[in-house]
Amino acid sequence: MRVLITGATGQLGRALLRHQPTHLSGTTVECIATSRNGGDGSLSLDLSDSEACRAVVRDYQPHWVLNAGAYTAVDQAEAEPDLAYAINAGAPAAFADVLQGYGGRLLQISTDFVFNGDQNVPYRPEQLTSPLGSYGVSKAAGEQAVLNRLGQKGLAVILRTSWVYGPVGRNFLLTMLRLHAERAAEGRPLSVVSDQFGSPTATDGLAVACWRVLQRQSEEAQALPSILHWSDAGITTWYEFAVAIGEMAVDCGLLTQAADVCPIPSSAYPTPAKRPPYSVLDCGMTSAVLGIAPHDWRESLADVLRHMV
């Protein structure tokens, strides 16, 4: 089974390669890793270039494209909406254009930011999207492009996730570790938004869920649902997440001291892009169809930090 992975040098891409199975459904797995600049054994692929995206699928004829690459700079997307759209909507559309010609399949990683956060109960996969900013709009458009081309044929799965972090890349965990160390040394507090609710998702658990999608889709006679949700279990705020990062990092020896963390409202930390105030995903159906249960977000955080020591 040939699997083409985009964003292979990013935080999720690296986790996918770490957890790559040797076999799926009795078939040897061969990964074709791609990234924007190449390197680390990956092919160079610019996701903003739709023709390049079509060409790589035509050339390698993968059984699956696992599209983990994305434009994820939420605030910068407000200044670069065309680029965000090209990467987040144009690339999956291009992959799907070629895949539908020979029956290849696509696992498209998407985001909680396709919802506006106006409700206070977890979002179900079948709910209508209503993004707030350019990033969410581009990801929602990518979902629709994939479903339009591959959805009716059972050749695509959209896997939405939230608050993704891991030991590499650019993410909230690594930012908070740096700020905890700096502010504690300076004797200054750290202010973090406390009125946005969601579920952190560690890359290792997300990677396992991705490979499970490929396994189940290959084994089952009936296709999986077209849209699935996956995150770690539990609901928290960015403030509570930041406090937990500091405390657990001290416990495992990554930090000698954590900074004091002060809760602030979103209004005190204005950003170019508006964030959904509540973006918890209902993962119940996904857990049932994949046969795996998510770990509590605190357990996942502790595990990531222990492996960083």
Features:
single chain; 309 residues; alpha/beta; Rossmann fold; two-stranded antiparallel sheet; 40% helix; globular
Describe this structure in words.
The model has no long low-confidence stretch (mean pLDDT 96). Strand 7, helix 4 and strand 8 (156-161) form a beta-alpha-beta unit. The radius of gyration is 19 Å and the shape is globular. The protein has a domain at 2-166 and 200-233 and 280-295: NAD(P)-binding Rossmann-like Domain (Rossmann fold), CATH 3.40.50. The protein contains 9 helices and 15 strands. The strands form 5 sheets. It has a 7-stranded parallel sheet, sandwiched between helices. Strands 2-3 form a two-stranded antiparallel sheet. Helix 2 packs parallel to helix 3 (81-102). With 309 residues, the protein is α/β, with parallel strands linked by helices.
